[in-house]
Amino acid sequence: MPKGGRKGGHKGRARQYTSPEEIDAQLQAEKQKAKEEEEAQEEGGDGATGDPKKEKKSLDSDESEEEDDEDYQPKHKGVEGMIDIENPNRVAQTAKKVTQIDMESPRELSRREREEIEKQKAKERYMKMHLAGKTEQAKADLARLAIIRKQREEAAKKKEEERKAKDEASVAGKRMQSLSLNK
Predict the structure, then answer these.
(1) pLDDT tens digits for 108-128?
(2) Which of the 8 DSSP states describes residue 22?
(3) Which of the chain's ends, N or C, has fewer CB atoms near its CB within 10 Å?
(4) What is the dihedral sign for C-alpha 11, 13, 18, 19?
(5) pLDDT tens string 60-85
(6) Distance between the two ends of the chain, CA-based, in angstroms?
(7) How far is it, in rounded angstroms, from Cα 113 to Cα 120?
């Protein structure tokens, strides 16, 4: 356990700083190396005096790129490359080229997308049936509306009768007044 009783970690360590002289020395070494490479290329011209391994590599690179495309195998992580896996359900992922992708074919929808579409269709179907009055809720609404209509009609009739009675009473009152005045 480190001193102080705390858990150890890399963040608490002392930092090492590079001195400006070392940085200058590294930059000069890199520049000198770049100059040497440029001089070697200028002297060789066509690259005949260059490293024969590099030349062969550059010539074979075109062929190897074509082979790599056909026999592409991803790098294995950890001990994955050492262990032979015999899982029949495991599908090896293959990289598809842009030319192989078929944009015109209908793509397979995910479960969420399918459920969302089904939900919308069910909602539309329900609304059509509701507007046609075939659902239980629509029937209950229509019955409630019919009751309200009857109540309003009865209230309107009652008001009309009261108004007529009031008119008749006022007409009768006027007649009585005119008769009493005539006497």
Answers:
(1) 889 999 999 999 999 999 999
(2) H
(3) C
(4) positive
(5) 444 445 444 555 566 767 776 777 77
(6) 128
(7) 11
CB half-sphere exposure, 87, CA atoms < 13 A: 6
| Whole-prediction pTM | 0.32
Query: Is the model's pLDDT at 6 over the cut of 70?
Result: no
Q: How far is CA 58 from CA 45, 48, 94, 179, in A?
A: 16, 13, 27, 131
**C-beta atoms surrounding 129 within 10 Å:** 13
- Please give the full DSSP string across 69-87, using - where no structure is assigned: HHT--PPPPTTTTTSPP--
Residue-wise burial string across 61-70, b where 16 or more C-beta atoms lie within 10 A, e elsewhere: eeeeeeeeee
Closest CA to 12 of 2, 22, 26, 23: 2
| Alpha carbon distance 93, 72 (integer Å) | 10
Q: Where are the beta strands (DSSP E) in 50-141?
A: none
- Residue 4: what residue type? G
Give every CB contact of residue 93 below 8 A, 6+ residues apart in sequence: 74
